[in-house]
Protein backbone atom coordinates (compact mmCIF):
# COMPACT_ATOMS: atom_id res chain seq x y z
CA UNK A 1 0.00 0.00 0.00
CA UNK A 2 1.04 3.59 -0.47
CA UNK A 3 -0.39 6.79 0.90
CA UNK A 4 -2.45 8.65 -1.70
CA UNK A 5 -2.89 11.87 0.25
CA UNK A 6 -6.28 11.01 1.74
CA UNK A 7 -6.19 7.21 1.93
CA UNK A 8 -3.95 4.20 1.38
CA UNK A 9 -3.92 2.86 -2.19
CA UNK A 10 -3.34 -0.76 -3.18
CA UNK A 11 0.17 -1.05 -4.65
CA UNK A 12 0.80 -4.79 -4.80
CA UNK A 13 -0.72 -8.06 -3.58
CA UNK A 14 1.08 -11.26 -2.64
CA UNK A 15 -0.47 -14.71 -2.12
CA UNK A 16 -0.37 -15.30 1.62
CA UNK A 17 -2.69 -18.20 2.47
CA UNK A 18 -1.39 -19.95 5.60
CA UNK A 19 1.19 -17.25 6.29
CA UNK A 20 2.35 -16.73 9.84
CA UNK A 21 5.07 -14.13 9.22
CA UNK A 22 5.72 -11.36 6.70
CA UNK A 23 9.10 -9.74 7.25
CA UNK A 24 10.60 -6.81 5.34
CA UNK A 25 14.39 -6.98 5.38
CA UNK A 26 17.33 -4.94 4.10
CA UNK A 27 20.72 -6.56 3.46
CA UNK A 28 23.31 -4.09 2.18
CA UNK A 29 21.56 -2.28 -0.70
CA UNK A 30 19.04 -5.07 -1.27
CA UNK A 31 15.44 -4.84 -0.09
CA UNK A 32 13.57 -8.09 0.52
CA UNK A 33 10.15 -9.17 1.72
CA UNK A 34 9.91 -12.69 3.17
CA UNK A 35 6.57 -14.46 3.42
CA UNK A 36 6.68 -17.52 5.70
CA UNK A 37 3.92 -20.12 5.56
CA UNK A 38 3.04 -23.28 7.49
CA UNK A 39 1.49 -24.88 4.38
CA UNK A 40 3.96 -24.12 1.58
CA UNK A 41 7.50 -22.97 0.93
CA UNK A 42 8.66 -19.63 2.30
CA UNK A 43 8.68 -17.06 -0.49
CA UNK A 44 11.48 -14.50 -0.77
CA UNK A 45 10.75 -11.39 -2.84
CA UNK A 46 13.22 -8.66 -3.79
CA UNK A 47 12.46 -5.04 -4.65
CA UNK A 48 12.85 -4.48 -8.39
CA UNK A 49 13.53 -0.77 -8.83
CA UNK A 50 12.71 -0.81 -12.55
CA UNK A 51 9.30 -2.43 -12.00
CA UNK A 52 8.77 -0.56 -8.71
CA UNK A 53 7.45 -3.69 -7.00
CA UNK A 54 8.52 -6.83 -5.15
CA UNK A 55 9.36 -9.73 -7.49
CA UNK A 56 9.47 -13.42 -6.52
CA UNK A 57 13.11 -14.34 -6.03
CA UNK A 58 13.54 -17.64 -4.18
CA UNK A 59 11.73 -20.37 -2.25
CA UNK A 60 13.06 -21.65 1.08
CA UNK A 61 12.02 -24.91 2.72
CA UNK A 62 11.48 -23.89 6.34
CA UNK A 63 9.11 -25.86 8.56
CA UNK A 64 6.62 -23.51 10.29
CA UNK A 65 8.71 -20.30 10.12
CA UNK A 66 8.03 -17.64 12.73
CA UNK A 67 10.67 -14.94 12.24
CA UNK A 68 13.54 -13.84 10.02
CA UNK A 69 16.52 -11.78 11.14
CA UNK A 70 19.48 -10.31 9.28
CA UNK A 71 22.84 -10.72 11.02
CA UNK A 72 26.09 -9.21 9.73
CA UNK A 73 29.38 -10.78 10.90
CA UNK A 74 32.89 -10.08 9.53
CA UNK A 75 31.57 -8.41 6.34
CA UNK A 76 29.29 -11.40 5.66
CA UNK A 77 25.50 -11.34 5.80
CA UNK A 78 23.27 -14.08 7.11
CA UNK A 79 19.54 -14.69 7.33
CA UNK A 80 18.39 -16.47 10.50
CA UNK A 81 15.05 -18.24 10.12
CA UNK A 82 13.44 -19.53 13.31
CA UNK A 83 10.96 -22.38 13.17
CA UNK A 84 8.05 -23.35 15.42
CA UNK A 85 8.29 -27.07 14.59
CA UNK A 86 11.86 -27.55 13.35
CA UNK A 87 15.34 -26.15 13.83
CA UNK A 88 16.53 -22.61 13.20
CA UNK A 89 18.10 -22.33 9.77
CA UNK A 90 20.91 -19.95 8.81
CA UNK A 91 21.39 -18.85 5.20
CA UNK A 92 24.36 -16.92 3.84
CA UNK A 93 23.52 -13.95 1.60
CA UNK A 94 25.51 -14.36 -1.63
CA UNK A 95 25.55 -12.02 -4.62
CA UNK A 96 26.63 -13.58 -7.93
CA UNK A 97 27.67 -11.11 -10.65
CA UNK A 98 26.46 -12.51 -13.98
CA UNK A 99 27.29 -9.38 -15.97
CA UNK A 100 30.65 -10.66 -17.26
UniProtKB/TrEMBL annotation:
Keywords: Glycoprotein, Repeat, Signal
Signal peptide: none
InterPro entries per the UniProt record, alphabetical: EAR (IPR009039), EPTP (IPR005492), LGI_related (IPR051295)
One cellular-component annotation, GO: extracellular space
PROSITE patterns associated with the record: EAR
Pfam families noted in UniProt: EPTP
Record protein name field: Leucine-rich glioma-inactivated protein 1
Species per Swiss-Prot/TrEMBL record: Gopherus evgoodei (Goodes thornscrub tortoise)
Lineage, opening ranks: Eukaryota, Metazoa, Chordata, Craniata, Vertebrata
Amino acid sequence: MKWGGAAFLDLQRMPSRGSMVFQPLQISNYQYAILGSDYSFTQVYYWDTEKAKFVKFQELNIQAPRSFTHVSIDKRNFLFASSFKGTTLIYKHVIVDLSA
